[in-house]
TrEMBL record:
GO terms for molecular function: hydrolase activity. The lineage of its organism: Bacteria, Pseudomonadati, Bacteroidota, Sphingobacteriia, Sphingobacteriales. Residues 144-331 form the BD-FAE-like domain. InterPro entries: AB_hydrolase_fold, BD-FAE-like_dom, GDXG_lipolytic_enzyme. PANTHER family: AB HYDROLASE SUPERFAMILY PROTEIN C4A8.06C (PTHR48081). It comes from the Bacteria. Gene3D superfamilies: alpha/beta hydrolase. Keywords: Hydrolase. Pfam families: BD-FAE. This is Alpha/beta hydrolase.
Length: 376
């Protein structure tokens, strides 16, 4: 009986690899199920095989165990399908015939699921001082000598939380690829509201330019990367600052249309998205509609906007992938080079495990994108 109960519980958890999570803690579970599929599929396999010795409810438990095993492995199978054409699809969008733009690894590797993420050291730097606060960034020097492009990493956290230390595993990967990385802190809501974080990005770029010789930065090539709320900030900065040195922007599951996003709130059992947006924008849409418009990156796409990489999961319960659909449509209309990596099984934060299916594919896409746009 205990075996059957465990299999049923694991089966219910495995459904998160296919369906959207209905509550906050189940969303966290979905990140783990899709990011570490070998652990859950291994548990399902052990419980299924134990049926040879445990006779109670043997047939039903074994059948349900096999189904659970398949569901847990499904992100791996789907990652192979997405990765199979990723190089070809990205090449066709960005017209990149040079073999050197592609990372040495495959878009997805089963063996890499067993690997651990690497770390690297950074330096804390104060990049701006305001009258009431100062902001720091974590600076990672490129693994290649000389003046190198710089990636500005902007964390998530619903505009009111988070910091530059979150999900740092991608930073050493980019450093090893030859890029400087500046992971920034920005002013948080509700004390500070839009467009304060975009102003912080602008001041960060100013600081990096002024200290480019010491930091070994090529000041003609900046790339902005943001996750979730940080993606909204990155997109807004890339499309409104009008800085030609921002040559690319990467959007990890960001809200690109704040007006539409307010009209279709997320599941309140996971997040009160309207409250979060109101804290950031100074009120509800009814109270300050212009603030929502001014903070919607889709409204500022134009033909001179920088190349854009969009990455979103199909089971995202915090930020609907429709945001990314709408952004891609605007970019195509303006004829801005853009690629959308859609991960059907991915939930919000799918890149928590950089070596998981979503983490591998997104890392490959980011490396390829940056390698391409920084070519001479």
């Amino acid at each position: 009986m205990i075996r059957l109960i465990l299999i049923v519980l694991l089966f219910l958890v495995s459904l998160l690899a296919v369906f959207r999570a209905p509550a906050y803690y189940l969303w966290i579970a979905a990140i783990l199920v899709t990011g570490y599929p070998l652990i859950f599929s291994g548990a399902a396999l052990l419980l299924t095989v134990s049926g040879f010795w445990i006779k109670a409810y043997q047939t039903f438990g074994t059948v349900l165990g096999i189904i659970t095993f398949i569901l847990c492995l499904s992100p791996i199978a789907r990652a192979y399908f997405v990765g199979a054409d990723l190089k070809k699809e990205m090449s066709s969008i960005f017209n990149a015939p040079h073999k050197t733009i592609y990372p040495p690894q495959q878009p997805f590797s089963f063996l890499k699921l067993f690997s651990a993420a690497n770390g690297t050291q950074s330096n804390d730097i104060t990049y701006v001082k305001y009258a009431d606060t100062s902001l720091k960034l974590d600076y990672y020097r490129a693994g290649i000598p000389g003046k190198r492009p710089c990636v500005v990493m902007i964390h998530g956290g619903s505009w009111g939380g988070g910091n530059s230390k979150e999900l740092p595993e991608l930073n050493p990967v980019l450093v090893k690829s030859g890029y400087n990385v500046a992971a920034i802190n920005y002013r948080l809501a509700p004390k500070y509201q839009s467009p304060a974080p975009v102003e912080d990005v602008k001041n960060c770029l100013k600081y990096l330019r002024e200290h480019a010789d010491n930091l070994n930065i090529d000041t003609t090539k900046f790339i902005l990367i943001g996750r979730s709320a940080g993606a909204q900030i990155a997109l807004a900065a890339a499309y409104t600052i009008n800085d030609p040195s921002i040559i690319g922007v990467v959007d990890f599951y960001g809200p690109a249309d704040m007006v539409w996003g307010y009209s279709i709130p997320s599941n309140p059992l996971i997040m009160d998205s309207r409250k979060v947006m109101g804290n950031y924008l100074g009120g509800s849409y009814k109270e300050v509609p212009q603030h929502y418009f001014n903070s919607s990156p889709v409204e500022f796409v134009k033909k001179t906007s920088p190349a854009t990489l969009i990455i979103h999961g199909g089971t995202d319960v915090l930020v609907s992938p429709i945001h990314s659909d709408k952004l891609l449509a605007k970019l195509k209309k303006a004829r801005v080079p853009a690629f959308y990596l859609y991960l059907p099984w991915g939930t919000h934060g799918f890149d928590y495990s950089l070596n998981g299916p979503g983490g591998q594919l997104s890392t490959y896409a980011v490396q390829t994108f940056i390698n391409t746009i920084t070519q001479p």
